[in-house]
Amino acid sequence: AQTVTQSQPEMSVQEAETVTLSCTYDTSESDYYLFWYKQPPSRQMILVIRQEAYKQQNATENRFSVNFQKAAKSFSLKISDSQLGDAAMYFCAHQGGSEKLVFGKGTKLTVNP
Amino acid sequence: DTGVSQNPRHKITKRGQNVTFRCDPISEHNRLYWYRQTLGQGPEFLTYFQNEAQLEKSRLLSDRFSAERPKGSFSTLEIQRTEQGDSAMYLCASSLGEVSNQPQHFGDGTRLSIL
Known about the structure:
Chain A is mostly beta strands. Chain A contains no helices and 12 strands. The termini of chain A are far apart.
């Protein structure tokens, strides 16, 4: 069974600074996808970024980028130029041959002005 | 694109009662998923439909839980004889197409509180 571990329950960053959120996963599958989702307080889960495991190039979406280390089963999210609106719970998720997403427990990100 | 819609947003009920939640996916999406999220945890998969066919069910989905998607459009999740442990946020998501691993788009969720 797949598992996803987020070892940082909470992180904080100063506005305009850079922060990295950690995620490790365990899977026996060779073909899979990894995701970071953002869940603002009392609001819906929003996809931040997606990485296909067969691609060596790290995904990037504007200020968000990942560091995907397949051999280490590590998938960290880097947020550059942090903004107040980035404050949220961030969930790392794995999707393999089954369609279901397996989520970590999340990291609460606080952005300080 | 009106997004995934879930109703009601909140449901408060007494233990032992039955509750039903509705999810309307994004209109062209043929896949629909239900997840449960308890406080301080990430969402946990419950079940998934492709069109009207229920293709996978988690063992979390006890026999008190039933989900349907009768015409391949909206879906309902019913919980019978609710228990305190059923208190959670129930999330619905949908995705597009015959190709696997398309991103899932989530609704706002239905928060269930059992008195």
